[in-house]
Design brief:
By secondary structure, the chain is an alpha/beta fold. The protein folds into two domains: 183 residues, 3-Layer(bba) Sandwich (FAD/NAD(P)-binding domain); 120 residues, FAD/NAD(P)-binding domain (3-Layer(bba) Sandwich). It contains seven helices and 17 strands. The strands form four sheets. Strands 1, 2, 3, 4, 5, 6 and 17 form a seven-stranded mixed beta sheet that branches. Strands 8-15-9-10-11 form a five-stranded parallel beta sheet, covered by helices on one side. It has a three-stranded antiparallel beta sheet with strand order 12-13-14. The two termini are 28 Å apart.
Length: 311
């Protein structure tokens, strides 16, 4: 097995990872970034990004990730394709195994492995992803202004997404598989008192309908009594949670009960000195490209200062 010693290793290649790489390379940390299983992260499944500063005409998710990657490599980041398959954070330098065949020994480690949105697992859901199917109302809701949409879920996130969309869309259906909402009382009251939100109780989604060119145009729902219902919609939003990609380091790094990495105060420091976390893997609240990028900047600065203090 080949071995390599480096100052700063970045795992993950979304806005957090690439921004950390830009700052770390400008600080002469000679960072190495491994792109992971989904180079570019969740944004590569997003067609249009209109809310990231600096793109007045909007940009596609893949294009924006290529721009960030190009900027990182311009300053000297060594961007590599590969997957971190195991980690030993018991001592510095930290040992990270890539693709089960190479060992990286890193003085500092920045974790920007992101979070994966939970989907229902339907074939039609996958087919229309980015063409009407989304897991982020804040990211994509604007594209459905004045139209009818649906939100799947019954927790706080689903209620927040539905409330946000209600301010933009003509009508919002909430598809809830039970006869109650799991959300907090305040969020339930907000949804119940919003005139253009209709809750469809005891329904599961059977299929999303649409066309290759036109995208989503409806959904077929099944009630627990077996009856079916067709709704006409243009947007189908998943709000059944996210799964933070923290398993690689869960033996060493403290996480909350959902698996999100816990960072100290307003920093990106984890409980292991020299290991930092940025982006969605440590952010259960905002999950936006711009906040991920900001935390990537913070992680690189935290890593630079750690190295300066531990020469």
């Amino acid at each position: 097995m080949t071995k390599e010693n480096i100052k700063c290793l970045i795992i993950g290649s979304g806005p957090a990872g690439y921004t950390a790489a830009i700052y770390a390379s400008r600080a002469n940390l000679n960072p190495v970034l491994y792109e992971g299983i989904q180079p570019g992260g969740q944004l590569t499944t997003t067609t249009e990004v209109d809310n990231f500063p600096g793109y007045p005409k909007g940009v596609t998710g893949p294009e924006m990730m290529e721009d960030l990657k190009e900027q990182a490599t311009r300053f000297g980041t060594d961007v590599r394709f590969g997957i971190a398959t195991s980690a030993d954070l018991s001592k510095r330098p930290f040992k990270i195994t890539i693709d089960n065949e190479k060992e990286i020994f890193a003085e500092t480690l920045i974790l920007s492995t992101g979070a994966t949105a939970k989907y229902l697992g339907m074939e039609s859901e996958e087919r229309f992803r980015g063409q009407g199917v989304s897991a982020c109302a804040t990211c994509d809701g604007f594209f459905y202004k004045g139209k009818d949409v649906a939100v799947v879920g019954g927790g706080d996130t689903a209620c927040e997404e539905a409330s946000y969309l209600a301010g933009l869309c003509n009508k919002v259906y909430m598809i809830v598989r039970r006869d109650v909402l799991r959300a907090s009382k305040a969020m339930q009251d907000r949804v119940m008192n919003t005139p253009n939100i209709e809750i469809l109780w005891n329904y599961n989604t059977k299929e999303i309908t649409g066309s290759p060119m036109g995208g989503v145009n409806g959904a077929i729902l099944v009630n627990k009594d077996g009856s079916e219902k067709k709704i006409d919609i243009h947007g189908f939003f998943l709000a059944i949670g996210h799964h933070p990609n923290s398993e690689l380091v869960s033996e060493w790094i403290k996480t909350n009960e959902e698996g999100y990495i816990i960072t100290e105060g307003k920093s990106t420091r984890t409980n292991v000195p020299g290991v930092f976390a940025a982006g969605d893997v440590q952010d259960p609240h905002y999950r936006q490209a711009v906040t991920a990028a900001g935390s990537g900047c913070m992680a690189a600065i935290d890593a630079e200062r750690f190295l300066a203090d531990n020469k």
